[in-house]
Records
---
Amino acid sequence: MAEFDHLLVAIASENDATATAASLKAHLGIPERVTVVHVVEKAGGAPDKAGVEQREEAAEEGFAAFRDALDGATVETDIVYATDVADGILEAAREVGADAVVFAPRGGGLFARLLTGDVTRDLIDRADRPVIALPGQR
């Protein structure tokens, strides 16, 4: 398996951050450098689902949970604002020079993916670097 020095890890919530960090640690170990991103999806002209401050607070809670789950490893964080989650993640990976993008699929049925889009598929289809999908959360 290839070794990656700098991973960009996408999280969606505090619970997701804890589970993703645990899966990362179990399957890939703790990399030399980790940048964790939380994408605040902007509505592109329509009213946003939640206030920016509320979403930023949720992101900070997720970052703290990720750090705690990795036992104090050095973790950089970034809140990304984008109208497309996959594009936001991939742009963040380019900006920080990550070797690979890591995420844990969030689940959801076929109907939910049809309504909201499939970020997993979009990440893989548009990626300009390796994308690592950790085992899904149950």
---
Amino acid sequence: MRVVSGMRPTGKLHLGHYFGVIRNWVKLQEEHECFFFIADWHALTTAYKNTKELRQNIREVMIDWVALGLDPDKSVLFIQSKVKEHAELCLLLGMLTPKSWLELNPTYKDLKYNLLRLVDLEREFKEKLKETVENLLKSLPFQITKEDKFKEHLLENLTQTMIEALFEGEIEPEILKRLNVSKKDFYETDTFGFLGYPVLQTADILIYKGEAVPVGEDQLPHIELSREIARRFNRLYGKIFPEPKALLTETPKIPGTDGRKMSKSYGNAVFFTDTKEEVEKKVMKMFTDPQKIRKNDPGRPEICPVFAWHKLFTKDEELVSQIEQDCRSGKLGCVECKRILLKHLEEFLEPIRERRKELEKNIEELEEKFLRNSEKAREIASATMEEVRKAMNLP
């Protein structure tokens, strides 16, 4: 089976990238024909203003991928922008993709709101507007056949309108002041590339006639949209593309050092470029159960990020069980618990650091491998585009 996936080079890779994506890719390359690419064009959809670090970020991703177990001799590891056919297919698919498909993509707004830190505001507006929507439904002079769906649709659109009105200065400005997001930020996010990124993503998959894309459940709408675009192309011009299926993957959630989702923007991540001293500093400052103030206080490991990390890095199951038991009873203090974690975390990180050092010494050789693989990918992409041009009657 041919598997296709990519990763944006937006900064240093951290533990969340490994457990969320790369660990699964390493397994897939042993069983399938895999195409994994550094999605530098996709990085521009949100970071088009700042490209100074893009080339260095690409190098860092190369190093991390191989240090973490991806093999350029087993998988086709390449750079998206080195295969220009991605852009050509994206252009042609864009001609036949209805704008409404992109606007209705549920992750489009989610990405924008996360990027601009508007998620909490959206939640706040929705909560305050619920009663207004209920009263509006009661006052309508006609019957609504699907009330729950209509209510959800109305609440979603009314909230969106309120947020837009806020940035237009039509709502009290105090709310906008606490966001630290300007009107310019709000509208400059709405670029053609940002709206159309699912078309480029579809081109990334279809150009290799990808049969499967490893994703988490939150990315299923992306794959369904790619399937829709493939179906529409095949119906209009003849069957060229397989409809890619989602390869649902088990991705254990690793919280950041503060308990939230691990993210560079939250400042709560452990990076593969971190030194032993930097990792120790981060681990010893990790959040724990807020009710466990003193060593002898009973803890709740199920809500503690430190224990969540133990389940991933402490390989001795009996020890993990003992840690859980001693935490609940108050026998084990948080400082000692973190020291135990640090030992096992370092056993995981140290070999990766050593591999990174070796790869950094031979960066030209590694870059050459990615360039050769990019040429290999381009040969396949070029053959696909010949079929596409012929099917669409292009010269």
---
Amino acid sequence: MNRTLVICKPDAVERGLVGEIVGRLERKGLRLAAGSLRVIDEQTAARHYEEHVGKAFYGELVSFIGRSPSLVLAVEGPEDTWRIVRTLMGPTNPAEAPPGTIRGDLGTDLAENLIHGSDSAESAARELAIFFPELR
């Protein structure tokens, strides 16, 4: 099985959308391999967002992801599961996300866009090691 990381971000948890998001993943045929509801601490957020260090929005990213609990998931499916998840998510900006995608149907704000999914097989491996080291 191929795995990727999915995070239902604080806004998804706060808005009660986790069940809808997980349901969409499961209806697509993906399975949950591991999951935990947690507040992502600053050190973990810094590791997760390390490619954005130095960018103007970095501080906002770290602050937002740690403001309240997120549901962090290891999701498994066929080859390129990360690509399937990214398609289900839709573009980062909910205003540009087509209907039928998670962000297109449920999102309203660019900064609070409900969900994170790894953007490549390499990112998936790196991010899963951060959040689920026991899955190696």
---
Amino acid sequence: MKAMILAAGFGTRLFPLTIDRTKPAIPFLGKPLVGYVAEYVAQFGIKDIVVNLHHQPESVIDALGDGSAFGVHIDYTRETPHILGTAGALDNAREYLADDTFLIANGKIITDIDISAALETHRASGAVATMVLKPNAKRERFTIVDTEGGFVTGFGDDATPVTEAELRDIEHDIVTPLMFTGIHIMEPRVFDYIPRGVYSDIVPTFYNPALLKGEKIAAHVTDANWFELSTIPRYLDISLAMMKAGDVHFGKNCVMVGAASLKDSVIWDDVTIGDGATLYRTIVADGVTIEPGEHFENAAIVRADMVRSCSEIPEKP
């Protein structure tokens, strides 16, 4: 069984942390985020992986190499000149995947979902594909996936967010929606629905037509841990939640000059922090120097020269 890890996205909502790399290549507690995904997949005996590339592709290749550091073998596909969408990414990788059941995983997640259990669901169902779903208890802005009797029946709008207080007030009156985790298991027959040369997402290209045709799409629902690091607040909050000790993570070759006050912060590699500096809920990217006495709070900091040379600063959706 092979896997595909999706790593072609732009990382717009993580800018400026993605100014010199794509989202899956950003460091997460000492490893590239996509490296965690490769190791996660390898835990279940899946050692042959294809990774798609588009935006800043060399950053992913530098992070993963041939995969040996993460216990896998990696091949790459490139999407040029335009990003292809998930369906297009599959089409572009069909020579790697079209001979057996395969797994797709998003390259920006941290999870302990049991792939073996999902695979059992898939095989027992006889479905052409299985979507791994999770209850969206906080009703975050993820697309609602409708199910009945263990099978996907369709896709709704995004869930409507509510506060913790609202959740307590209405928890007995609402049904918790299901959201997609970015993990699917598919049979090669999905390629019957995916045209060659398509630029499209997987839902309109495969899932919706397959459901209309009466195909079975299994739903594997799990309460396992699952985190999606798509925004700066998510990245920081999940980093802090997963630190084994302390409330500050330091990368390699960091230097503290004198005394500084640091709390709830993530420091990448080759960072210098001056005497009397104060950082609170701050992410400091590679090579940054925090001058003596500087104070930052709720910030993401990259080198100024990188911002000055950036040809286009993306608008966050």
